[in-house]
Amino acid sequence: MALWNRKKSKDGFAGLAIMSNGIYYLELLRSDTDLAVNRYEFVSYSHGAVKQDSLVDQEEAVRAIGELSDRIGGFGFDVALGIPSRDVMIKNVEFPDMDLEMAKDALHWNFDKNFPYDASEALYDADVIELPDGGKQDRVHLVVAAVRRFKIQGFLERLRGDGVPLSSMEPNNVAAFRAISRGMSIYDHGYIVLIIAAESLQMMIGYRESSLLFRSVPFPSDSVMSMEELSNRVVSEIQATGNYVRTLFRGINLSTVLLAGDVSVREHIVDRLKTEFDFSVDIVDPWLRWGITGAPDEAGEADVVVGLAARNLI
């Protein structure tokens, strides 16, 4: 799901993620036998451009991307751009059973019934949700991502003017879900993708490789949580999200947590989740999920940028 996209190269792919601590950039090359890292870069901000998972200083993001371009000698591949998750509204919308194109037409004409602005004011896209038996099969369920044009259009035009060959744009949590849910299509149960970042908690509900629900939960501004406070917050959010999903989608059995994000808290969070819930808890490495060779030793918050670079592979 992308807010817009255009045709891209078949052999080389690039993702650029605007994250809380800086800009992540990844180039992948595909051959007949493997998928390999061609380039991986990180550029930090001179001051905070992203706060609580929202872009608050576009000029600083432009500066950091310009520094990246100078470092790599310009962009050799079309770039899939990831923007902070809370800058995009993601909602679940349903209509009477119809094909995807008809559903998108219905969404266009009913857009302002689901979002606080008209479709003409938005960049948006939608995907059909796959549900297990027991879901509302007489309805078509969509997950819709939308952002108001005036908030992002000037920023995108600035990047293009500076020589960034943008091919698509999507929220970071959508890209992260793609990176982490790889291979889940063989399982007939629901799962939670949980990413713990510096300033937010990303929680996504999946069934097979379909994303049913996205939640971006910011942490209190300028506060430091203890490990116990963080664990309590994670448990509370999982409980609330699980209860909501079970009322929204019948037949969903959540039995697995796929954990990514901050390496320093994983061990404690895994132990706490296994104590609180009857879930299996798996720590996910997106590089291994996608079979990417040449992954960096210090990958940082790589989930998003891997998902961006890999978005044209599925």
Short characterization:
By secondary structure, the chain is of the alpha/beta class. It contains eight helices and 17 strands. It has helices at 58-72, 100-109, 149-161, 172-181, 227-248, 266-276, 286-289, 302-309, and strands at 4-5, 12-18, 22-30, 35-44, 50-51, 54-55, 79-83, 89-96, 122-128, 139-148, 166-171, 190-196, 200-207, 210-218, 254-261, 280-283, 292-293.
Spatial gap, N to C terminus: 11 Å
Shape: globular
**What's the helical proportion of residues?**
25-40%
CATH architecture of the domain at 183-286: 2-Layer Sandwich
CATH homologous superfamily (4th level) name of the domain at 183-286? ATPase, nucleotide binding domain
The ordered string of helix (H) and strand (E) elements is EEEEEEHEEHEEHEHEEEHEHEHEH
Mean pLDDT comes to 89
- Spans of 5+ residues with little confidence (pLDDT < 50)? none
**Approximately how much beta-strand content do the residues carry?**
25-35%
Please identify the oligomeric state: single chain
Q: Mind telling me the C-alpha Rg?
A: 19 Å
Adjacency order of strands in the biggest sheet: 1-11-7-2-3-4-17
Assign the structural class, choosing from mainly alpha, mainly beta, alpha/beta, alpha+beta, or little secondary structure: alpha/beta
**Any idea of the CATH class of the domain at 183-286?**
Alpha Beta
Number of strands: 17
Organism: Dethiosulfovibrio peptidovorans DSM 11002
Protein name: Tfp pilus assembly protein ATPase PilM-like protein
